Amino acid sequence: MKNILRFGIISFAFAAGVILVAPDSANAQNRRHANREYRDDIRDAREDYNRRVRQGNYTKARREYREDIRDARREYVQNVRRDRNGWYWYQNNRRYYRPFSMWNYRNGYFYRRY
Question: Which of 1, 34, 38, 103 could form a Cys-Cys staple with 79, CB 3.0–4.6 A?
Answer without folding.
Answer: 34
